Structures are given as C-alpha cells and as structure tokens.
Amino acid sequence: VNQMVIARQLAHLGYTCLLAANGLDALALLDRHRFALALCDCHMPELDGFGLTAAIRRRERTGGGHLPVIAFTANALRGESERCLLAGMDDYLAKPVELQELQRILHKWMPESGGSRAPDA
C-alpha cells in the first residue's frame, strides 16, 4: 500500500518510478538502470534500507558517482533522522509523506530535473 501511495504521489508531481519488493530487488534494479534518486524504506524485507544504502555506498567507492538516497520510514522517533544520515542516507522522509514535503525533497536533491528524471521508489 505504501508503495502505491508514493508511486501515485510521484506521478502527480511528474516523476516516474520503478518499485522494488525489497532491498535485494532494489540492488538488481540498480544494476540495470540509472536512477536520479532512491527513495528507500528503512524496514524492507531481505535487505533493509540501511543495508541497501551501505551496498550503494560500497559500489560508489569503487565505481564513483553518488546516488542520493532518501530514507522513507514510519519510525518518527527522535534520533531516527540522525541514524539515517549516519548510515549514509542523504535525507529523511517520515510516513505518511505529505505531497508538499515529497516535492521539497525531490527538488532539493534533483533541482535541475523539474520532474523529468526517474527516481526510484
């Protein structure tokens, strides 16, 4: 349900996305596609968002580049945003995500795109 909601929000804002069922599927998508941004649920099955971000950052150390990773979690506990940033994520969104907040984050990390590049969700 969360994936469908965020996909609709992204479409409403003019973005396209590919969805992954879990962190391992997300890594496979990263092997086949070039993304402008990754929205990463912190609590995915098989490989959570923290593990996915660590894998992305390891790949960047050997292959270069930087994929902005935005944490997406229902855990609004104090200190969670710091935990995400320490794990190598670039920013943080708490569920439920308001459309305006999603738009702000997308424009912050993809300011030149104006909605024309495909983020991953």
How would you describe the overall organization of this protein?
- The protein is mainly α and 121 residues long.
- 45% of the residues lie in helices and 11% in strands.
- The protein has five helices and three strands.
- A three-stranded parallel sheet has the order 1-2-3, with helices on both faces.
- Helix 2 runs parallel beside helix 3.
- The longest helix is centred in the middle third of the chain and has 15 residues, at 49-63.
- Residues 114-121 have low confidence and may be disordered.
SSE layout:
Elements: H1 2-12, H2 23-32, E1 38-41, H3 49-63, E2 69-73, H4 80-86, E3 91-94, H5 99-109
Parallel strand pairs: 1-2, 2-3
Rg over CA atoms = 13 Å
Quaternary: single chain
Strand segment count = 3
What would the average pLDDT be, to the nearest integer? 88
Total count of helical runs of at least 4 residues: 5
Summarize the helix and strand pattern as letters: HHEHEHEH
Shape: globular
Major sheet: 3 strands, parallel
Enumerate the spans where pLDDT stays under 50 for 5 or more consecutive residues.
Answer: 114-121
Q: What proportion strand?
A: 5-15%
**Percent helix range:** 40-55%
Strand order of the largest sheet: 1-2-3
**What is the first-to-last residue Cα distance?**
13 Å
Secondary structure category: mainly alpha
Key features of this structure:
45% helix, mainly alpha, 5 helices, single chain, disordered C terminus, 11% strand, 121 residues, 3 strands, 3-stranded parallel beta sheet
Task: Write a brief structural summary.
With 121 residues, the protein is mainly alpha-helical.
